[in-house]
Amino acid sequence: MANLTSLQRVKLSKNQLRFDLSKLKLPEGVSSVDLSSNLVTGSLSSLLNSKTSRFLEEAHLSNNQISGRIPDFSESLNVKVLNIGNNKIGGQIPSSISNLFELVRLDISRNHITGVIPQGLGQLEQLNWLDLSINQCTYRKNPG
What we know:
Layout (H helix, E strand, L loop, with lengths): L8 E3 L20 E3 L23 E3 L20 E3 L6 E2 L13 E3 L4 E5 L12 E3 L4 E3 L6
Parallel strand pairs: 1-2, 2-3, 3-4, 4-6, 5-7, 6-8, 7-9
């Protein structure tokens, strides 16, 4: 797929694709990837980082077998939609989620997320859809 230099959107949802996410090499310029409802494994860090995702705006990865943790996010990412619901992702939501200034939709539902929901989520002014349901998250009200 890396040779498809004009490719902007990849939609391979609802198939029986079995591969490790770290093996996926998207061509530079891809702004949207939809691999939802497959048998994808591996961790998110290989896809969601400043080296491989400069152009990525939408990542639809729900209903797979993705594990590991949600990676730290740099300010250089322009992700607007992150749908990673119904996987096997654990750990906490990183406070660096607040670096995703352009984020409009975030679905982390039906995973194994624990810990306190980061205050930084409240700073994402563009966010209009947030689904953290069916996890083990807690909330701590900001004192004051």
